[in-house]
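call fold(seq) -> tokens
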Amino acid sequence: MATTGAGSAGSARPRPAPGGSPLTSTPAIVSASPSPAAATVASAWPVYHRDEERTGVDPTFPALRGTPSVAWSTGLDGAVYAEPLVIGGRVIVATEQDTVYALDPASGRIAWQRHLGSPVPLATLPCGDIDPLGITGTPAYDPATGSLFVVAEMTGPRHVLYALDPASGAVRWSRDVDLAGDDPATHQQRAALAVGNGYLYVGFGGLAGDCGAYRGEVVGVPTSGRGATIAYRVPVAREGAVWATAGPSLDAAGNVYVSVGNGASTGTYDGSDSVLELSPTLLLLSRFAPATWAQDNASDADLGSLGPVLVPGGWVFISGKAGTGYVLRQGALGGIGGQVSSAPVCRGFGGAARLADTVFVPCPDGLRAVRIGSDGSIHVEWRTTSGADGPPVVGGGVIWALDLERGNLLALDPATGDALARVRTGSVPHFASPTLWQGLVLVGTMHGVVAVRAGS
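ret:
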């Protein structure tokens, strides 16, 4: 199901997949008119995993030399679940206290901070595991408008999208992004934001515990702040979360890929436990679900825990909670049981990194390196025993990933998964992913940000 407003300029409107029906567009709630960006702010890590394909690769990062060590650590007002960004030479960090910070990357000094509102205390929610609940999904920078976009969960509760000036933190405009008929108390915005086609895309799922009659959805808001909201709502009776921390991935044509969690049905297929390909205006183009979708739904073993990975050659890779990896075709995901190939991989959680045809998959028992063959075949090359299990990034010939339980940052050999170095960062949130910038590895923690110098 989809609702369409203003389409992206110059794009043909694709036909929706059968069975879609329009939602009612949510009205714009704009508190201030957006001001045009005077100039594009240079950016180095503008979105989750650096680009809209979520590759997590920085080809400019320097090679590992010597021993990595902590360069600085800055305490902030709350936990940092969102991946740090680097925009215009500043580190941008959002906290669960609904505060956005810009830090000097040389020292960690605070350049500006913007408190957007009061977060939601866990005691006021029907379930969940983040206290308080504020900004969880990684923000996104749009070079076309020069705006930094952030979704904050605020007392009410309500979800509000803010467009900020990344140079000063000033609010350019804001807008509610809860859809008509939704209960904001049961919807959580955990997926990273994505920018493309003149839209800011926002994924919604539920709280830990899956309480309430929420339904997963992807919402699109024009990056200008003007015009109708568009949305795709998963056609489940309840659940079907779009919550993987990597958020939507965009292909070269601007089509949007998301994974969907389990639904309530174990009888008639309800669109859950799936990978979706959506048009720029969020019309359903194709989808995939495993032939085992009913038992996946019954046992909470769905695909929604890992973001879809776009692989050269026209492939899409996914490996969810059941531990089976699937390769699908971009543009025709295959429907129920229509994968190109499948093989045991691991239970994937968060966001993978992708270097050429190899996908580095975050798994609770250690990262996997999975090579996708030219025919779409799956080849598991190694599993690390280093303890690294968080969403990885790649730079300087090294994989950087966190040991989420022990609060360590590890540098791994991409050929073997062996640990090359280990640095203590302190406690980190679930699914925390590092950011790379000019020899620094930036890590959001439960108390702020730690910067590790990648060699001396």
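The longest strand covers residues 147-154.
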